[in-house]
Amino acid sequence: MFQKILIANRGEIACRVAATARKLGIKTVAVYSDADAQAKHVQVCDEAVHIGGSAPKDSYLRWERILQAAQDTGAQAVHPGYGFLSENEDFAKACAAAGLVFIGPPASAIQAMGLKAASKQLMEQAGVPLVPGYHGADQDPALLQREADHMGYPVLIKASAGGGGKGMRIVKKTADFAEALASCKREAINSFGDDAVLVEKYVQRPRHIEIQVFGDTHGNCVYLFERDCSVQRRHQKVLEEAPAPGMTEALRQQMGEAAVAAAKAVNYVGAGTVEFIVEQTGYDSPESMKFFFMEMNTRLQVEHPVTEAITGLDLVEWQLRVASGEPLPLRQDQLRIQGHAIEARICAENPDNNFLPATGTLSVYRKPACSSFEIPNTSHTGLSVRIDDGVREGDSISPFYDSMVAKLIVHGDTREQALARLDEALAQTRIVGLTTNVQFLRRVIQTDSFATAKLDTALIQREDKALFGQEPLGLALTAAAVVASTLQREAALTGHDPFSRRDGWRAYGMATRRFGFVFHGQAQTALLTYGHDGTTQFAIDAMVDAPLPQPVFGALTWRAEGDQLAIAFAGQQARVQVFMHVEGGDDVAHVFAPQGATRITVIDALAHAGEVQEAGGRLTAPMPGKVVSFSVNVGDKVKAGQPLAVMEAMKMEHTMAAPADGEVLELLYAPGDQVAEGAELLKLKLD
């Protein structure tokens, strides 16, 4: 076994690898960029080496610096994690040339599976089922269009060297093909340095089911069952679970054996995942499911913890043992499935704005009661809730890297029990300082489609009415929670003398206090009246989205219960937590309750007196990033919804559209320029 390894990655996966290494008594070396100088993964490793600037191309992709760091610190092996250099055959070769063990498959296997088109041809020779499509080397756009037209729409364009949902577009009609192809190629060259694509028939009602495989240097290869990763947005996974609901033993064995055949075809060593697209004629007819090879990821997957949960195994430990020359710890007939596990990816993004990535500081980051790999010598097996993350409260989510904050993994005896535990764990998660998808995840697992395992990759689109633009608490409960929290804070400041009391007591008459709020873009006024008997009456002028303005009033009561408040108002009761945060100069209250979380702006009328809403047409950057292109010129007439500009942030392209009909007056940046969040990209004269 190794005495010291270097982890050529950052964030959650670097912390995850370091934890298993610590368990095995292996010393670890972290590498870090300028942006990650104080990052969690730097702190949890035994040593750390600075390797360059914040952008990945200046640090985590500079493998010559990483190899130098390994040699300087005396590391014997390099663990690439996932992403960055994990599937770069040149890096694997460079490790071997430098006398370092690459904790992953041989460079030849990475190369064979790295190009989707070539890997499909290899799988066809190995007898693995394939989706109909064009996987050739000729990349002439006219040829690709003809192939797509011949297949029939919809088709899927995929970057041949891609992964993680990048460089992928669904095209529904021939008129959209050329534009989608150009965008796909741009994203592919930016993400992978290779703009080659393949075109495949888009499978209807598809499920994404993948098989975890493991090989060693002694010729052994096993499959550790399947994971269902069908719930996706923008071709990126949102929820993963194991085993796959509805999977029959016969189909599991067929897919497992096909995955092992794929791995053996390239003499695979280490952890890998063979991904299949599964066609189904109906949600209740598993016997009709047909599977087709999609791709092989020659690395550890983000979702590997669900496999660990149902097998009781540590896959990173298996990686280390296999890389050091040991045989696989278990044979195929010794592997068993235990219960059900689900993983939710908690990301810094806004689901209600097309999952736009978010940046900011984790001013509040409170996790549910769980076990984590950051705790030394703690086994992950047998746990019901687990958190894998690479951040702490006070850390920032920057625009340079992936938007994932943490992975929340739950395990239960049954899928129903795992679902209940996941909802409870998400309800206990508190994040303030940036927008996340936590509430969206709760809504997804509560949909009929997910709860009853009616799974396919279109689940989110199918359930869109239940998933987007939802308000879980409502104005009355939210405002009452904020006021109760204010009263609690003021009560804590009350001294023993009567003159320090903050309860509005008067010798005669009634004391009234006014609160101003903005809730979902609508201004609201609330009045709190103190009674002589110590009671408080609360009134809100109107309910948001009510057919007519309807005042809501009644007694407001609250009591502290640990770090929460038990409140009652207008027939509603809840246990809440309220966190205040300054955003854009406004005081914003984040309210968390068992039924969900929301936010409301608390307005200081004097501070905002005289403000006037700016008129005119402005198109601003929704996040920090790089301007890729403008699709209009000065003087062009545009229609509402027409694409105007493309930005790149967090390794994904985002298209900005015209908010209304108008004319382009001025382009304020050029392609390639870096812009800050809120920067005005172009000026419009609106009709």
Distinctive features:
687 residues; alpha+beta; Rossmann fold; Dna Ligase, domain 1; D-amino Acid Aminotransferase, Chain A, domain 1; 17 helices
Largest sheet: 9 strands, antiparallel
Mean pLDDT level? 89
Output the strand order for the largest sheet.
30-29-28-27-35-34-33-32-31
CATH class type of the largest domain: Alpha Beta
State the separation between the terminal residues, measured CA to CA.
70 Å
Describe this structure in words.
- This protein has 687 residues and is an alpha+beta fold.
- The chain has five domains: 4-103, Rossmann fold, CATH 3.40.50; 132-201, ATP-grasp fold, A domain (Dna Ligase, domain 1, 2-Layer Sandwich); 206-462, D-amino Acid Aminotransferase, Chain A, domain 1 (2-Layer Sandwich); 475-603, Glycoprotein, Type 4 Pilin, CATH 3.30.700; 617-686, RNA polymerase II/Efflux pump adaptor protein, barrel-sandwich hybrid domain (OB fold (Dihydrolipoamide Acetyltransferase, E2P), Beta Barrel).
- It is built from 17 helices and 43 strands.
- It has a nine-stranded antiparallel beta sheet.
- The chain starts with a strand and ends with a strand.
